[in-house]
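Let's see one such:

===
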Amino acid sequence: MAREPRPAGIVTRGLCAVVDLCVVLAFLGAIYLGLMLVRLLYSPTGFRLPAPEVWLSAGATVVVSILYLTVCWATTGRTIGAVAMGLRVITTSHRLVRWPQAALRAAACVLFAVGLLWAAVDPHRRSLQDIVLRTAVVYDWREDAELVEG
């Protein structure tokens, strides 16, 4: 008989989020460097470093974060930070989250990050996003979990 997965606490989730933020920043850095290279190749004599506006940088950060989380949660239930911390995002019925649910959860986590702090006071260690979207963040050190999609 399979054991009930143990819900992840706020400290592990926080460390996971820090790792994932670093991954998103690395993606954004790679995009910026790519744009600089294209600009240099297009006009080598008039090259100068691009200085994106704050709203553009913030918007790109939000979009890349949501895309990263959505793809990771819908495909494996794990981000790079989750792999490092031994976590997985699943539904309350212990399945992988579907694409729409993963996208909604990603948007909620990025745009309303303070809701994640609810996991510190909830007896079942659920964030507000987990409660509303019926998901759970659990400890899962297995490389290839036997989860079924949605």
Remarks:
- The two ends are 22 Å apart (CA to CA).
- The chain has a mean pLDDT of 92.
